[in-house]
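Hi Y.,

Following your request, here is the sequence exactly as I used it, all 177 residues.
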Amino acid sequence: MTETTGYPWKENFQLHADALGKKAEAQKAVADYETHTKKVTEALGGKEKAAATEVNVVRFVEGADIRIYGKQNYISTILADVGLGRPAVTDKAKDGFSYDVSPEKIDLADADVVFHSTYGDPKKAKQTQTLDSALWKGMAAVKNDKVFAVEDQLWIQGIGYTAAAKILDELQADLTK
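Below is the corresponding structure, written out as tokens. Let me know if you'd prefer a different format.
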């Protein structure tokens, strides 16, 4: 029923709810999400502090370059709803989706906080060699213990309000450590 997934997930949800005659349930899910995002923003110290915290999401993908997620995908909408800042490298993302780099350029992913996931075999996805590299270990986020491994199926593939609620809980837990 929809052309694509990911970035338009909220619109897709409304379309599905309308098609299934579940508008009331959809409104509750949206309201719960909005309340949850506000609580997470407050837990992070408010809108200004959240906006001043630059967050990157890195995905190691078997058979492809490493993705630094831009601002037009599922996870970016959640980060934006919380009001988190994003580093300038995210503006280089092709079609807003991702800026792909080799392990030799992973330092471009540095931010105040970095979340990373892996799709496929970690060795074939270049995760193993990258996380062991001097470039990775030299990043400020790594040095400041602000790097968090997250589940790919939840953070990247979840694409819905149920997954978003779990991601919000993880964001709050990790960013308030």
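The CA atoms of residues 67 and 98 lie 6 Å apart.

Thanks again,
Q.
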